[in-house]
Amino acid sequence: MRESVLPAVQTAATLALVAWMITGFTPAPGRWLRWKMFCRATFTIVELTGITKNGTTETVNVYDHLSPGSFILGPPQLQAILDHLTASGRYERIDGTGRVLSARGEQPVKVVAGRVVL
Question: Which of 51, 81, 87, 111 could form a disulfide bond with 96, CB atoms 3.0-4.6 angstroms apart?
């Protein structure tokens, strides 16, 4: 009797753990991943176009201006990078659209003349 109880308890515990893990990683309505690490982080996904001093248009990749290994970019950090790129004279104007993913869900974001607009 004892030999059959242990595997049954292990199986039940394993199934409960798997069910808990599956529900922990499924998205809730209006949320982007419920796992606490993702809920506390703010991600900004944007497509930006910059107009250079000579009038040409080029794609701006803000992630090129983050420190190595960084990937979480919130609106304040995006604004700081945009300020740096325009103040350095690299671009006269930067515009774009995207979205912000945070604990409050997903919301649209625009960049108009180098200013982040939520």
Answer: 111
**CA dist., res. 60 & res. 70, Å (int):** 17
User: Is 93:111 a contact under the CB 8 Å cutoff?
Assistant: no
DSSP letters along the chain, please? -HHHHHHHHHHHHHHHHHHHHHHHSSPPTT-S--SHHHHH--EEEEEEEEEETTS-EEEE-GGGGSPTT-----HHHHHHHHHHHHHTTSEEEEEEEEEEEETTEEEEEEEETTEEE-
Q: What is the pLDDT of residues 39-69, one digit of tens each?
A: 567 888 899 999 998 889 999 988 888 777 7
